[in-house]
Amino acid sequence: MALLLALDTSAAASVAVLADGRPQAVWSTEDTTSHAEALAPAVTQALAEAGVSGAELDAVVVGVGPGPFTGLRAGLATAQALGFAWQVPVHGVRSLDALAHRAGVDAFEHGTEEFVVATDARRREVYWAHYAQVGGQPTLLHGPFVTAAEHVTPLPAYGAGAGLYRDRLHAVAGWEGEVPDAVALGQVAELALRRGRGILPPTPLYLRESDAKVPAPRRRAGA
Fold first, then answer.
1. What predicted TM-score, i.e. pTM, was given to this entire model?
2. Positive or negative: CA dihedral 194, 9, 144, 167
3. What is the Cα–Cα distance from 157 to 218, expressed in whole angstroms?
4. Is 63 helix (H, G, I), strand (E, B) or coil?
5. Cβ–Cβ contacts within 10 Å for residue 45, how many?
6. Candidate CATH numbers 3.40.190.150, 3.20.20.150, 3.40.720.10, 3.30.420.40; the one for domain 95-171
7. What is the per-residue pLDDT across 16-75, written as a single tens digit (0 to 9) for each?
8. How far apart are the C-alpha atoms of 16 and 50, rounded to whole Å?
């Protein structure tokens, strides 16, 4: 039985403990400003609810984005610290793949062979990627990208990014507020580990540079 702890902070923050892809405990918040403070207590709560300890896990799985610098950094730093403390491997999964994993079920039911998922990248842009159904599973074809909505491939669009720009994207009804979550992230990871492919290193996929800039050196007086 594969026992995984999954974390994603690419949009909202969420935590899940999964056994063979089935959620045993789930926590989430829509607050996007306190990821760092909320994650550690959320992990403790989820492990207690699932009745397992960190040392019993087979791996920690973390969403690598794309997403804002601060949010991703909080999730990745937490995952790597926990993996080090518990001596378990830490794996990365593209956060948009988690959203596509859920969207793929709806796309399959409606006979949609190709679709995009999109989340809010702020600055009037979206993070997005293009997927196709292959063997009943969504498979990444292109992306991830960060662009203005009008540059997204014109296909059925799932996710909060599509909801924000319905005048420019083909937003799928009922999916306009959806973001990546830890349960789907863990399920993507479990499937990838079982098949021996698709797992990434826990390295952030920012697509943009941080808004924080290193100040230029001050010139000395009289120089």
1. 0.90
2. positive
3. 48
4. strand
5. 13
6. 3.30.420.40
7. 999 999 999 999 987 766 777 889 999 999 999 999 999 999 999 999 999 988 889 999
8. 9
